[in-house]
Amino acid sequence: MEIIAIIGLILFITILSLLSNIGTKKKYSNINRNQTITQESYQRYAKFYEHAIPADILFEKKMNIIYQAIVNEKKRDIKKIAAKANCSYDECILKIRYLKNKRQIGDLHIDHINGKLLPCTEEESKLLTKYKPFLYYNHLTISEMASRLPGASIANLEKYKEQVFNELKMLYDKDLINGVKLNEVDKEILYYTVEKRKKEKDFISMRCGNCGAINDVNRGGKTRCEYCNTIMEDNTIE
Which residue has the higher pLDDT, 16 or 214? Predict the structure, then answer.
């Protein structure tokens, strides 16, 4: 009877282990099934924020670990997430921002001072609800956003533009809005997708043959890789 009990216990543990592994694979597949999560897409996103990123054979693994840690394990300590994914602190933050931009993780405030991911405050949630349609669906300018706010008129438009910019900057500084850059001098907003379309007319994106970083090259022209300084040339125009 004791042998039967031991065999039964072993089978039970084995089944639990298999079910656990299946569950883990399913959690990882949540991100892998989304074909927009690619290394090239990540490199383009990083380049928009002026980061030249070389190719990384561990890219998918790191992304899966970071996604798993935040979404399924509810980890909020960025240093611990970075250590688990075997990447630097800055690299981890950039990958978190990329996942946020791809709508893979929720509206979490990146606290750079304390290295934590924090839930939105009530005020931040209200501002996100207010500006998301302007930012992600219509790609409006600061002036266009201001003109659509209740009470805005030609007479007070400058006042509303200042309000819009200040509120967006607060969200931007906390990494609560993504795929945009704010120009504090001209009080303008740049959109990743819009700028990407503009560049595609005059430039071709090429992967460096030496380090794998994505670079923009004038069609028919040459440039040096921003990461390793290797000369790159577009030969598609005859």
Answer: 214
* DSSP bridge partners of 39: none
Reported as type and span, the H/E element at residue 129 is: helix 122-132
In this structure, which amino acid lies at residue 215?
Answer: N
State the residue for tokens 């993504």: 178
Scan for tokens 């043959």, then name that residue: 209
pLDDT the model gives residue 27: 41
101-113 burial code (b ≥16 CB/10 A, e <16)? bbebbebbbbeee
Q: Which helix (H) or strand (E) holds 164?
A: helix 157-173
Q: Give the separation between CA 63 and CA 67, rounded to whole angstroms.
A: 6
- Sign, Cα dihedral of 115, 116, 117, 123: negative
Model-wide pTM > 0.85 = no
Nearest alpha-carbon partner for 210 in 55, 104, 64: 55
